[in-house]
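Chapter summary example: a protein plus iron/sulfur cluster.
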Amino acid sequence: MNQRLLPWRTSKDPYTIWLSEIILQQTRIDQGQKYWEKFLNKFPSIQNLASAKESEVLALWSGLGYYSRARNIHKTSKIIVKNYRNEFPSSSRELAELPGIGPYTAAAISSICFNEVIPALDGNAFRVYSRLFGVDLPIEKKIAINTIKDLALPLISKKQPGDSNQAIMDIGSGICKPKNPKCFVCPLQEYCFARKNGNPESYPVKSKIKKSLIIDNFYIIVKKHDKYAFIQRPDKGIWAGLFTPIEMDKKSWRLALKNKSIDSKSVTTLRHILSHRIMNLHFSKWNASNIPEESKVKWHSQNDLKSLGLPAPIKKILVEKSYI
Ligand code: SF4
């Protein structure tokens, strides 16, 4: 079958492949490709990345979301430079011990760059294999993962395991789609259990669909002498280490609206949808002279905002929508 023409496909360099795999998690290919090029331009080698400041890496990552990925690539680069003399380990077992590298990414790197014969199982590959073999175990269960691994292993080429994995991923993303798979052009159609049974969309089996959580976050925009107040988030949790305007809890927000510390006319809300939660981000200008959390505040001018590590939805409203 035809391979997708993606620039990292011509490489077997683990640094290049690793960056592409991490960037493409939860990111569309066209957007991911631009970031992959930006990263390789700025940090052409793992030593360059390891010696950068974390704030530089986060700023370059800005807009991609899921910032733990950026922090993890930085941590991993330092480990590889310090403990592995700048060379990635070649086995999926060792790779999976590095920050941010899960079993799928480890198998993708080891099969593509070091010819380890192992199936790389991302969501697309899982869907293809579960349909191909008719695996009706709930996909979230470990037994389903192990069963698919066992069934997939004999299909992986011993000479070109990376090509085998990439071919399955291509079938998953281009042909064996979650809805309306194009079985009539699929190279696996002759062997496919689900196609023969006429029910490809019944696979992979899921045990239950989780309800999305809805979360409300409240931010106040405080301005003093042409500078704006920002607070750096803690090292753990969502948007760890990034900057946001001062955040309030719901009760304080309501109180501030009542006593007019918040300018109710300036309130604006942005809905930000993530895979497992919906965030309503409320912003308002701050009228009062006392500033909550002033001791933790860092002041930045409007010019700083483009390079400041801001979460993408906050950047969108502050910079792109010129809220401040
Ligand atoms: S034949 Fe259809 S269901 Fe089976 S792997 Fe191909 S596209 Fe998927």
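Key point: The chain has two domains: 7-202, 213-320.
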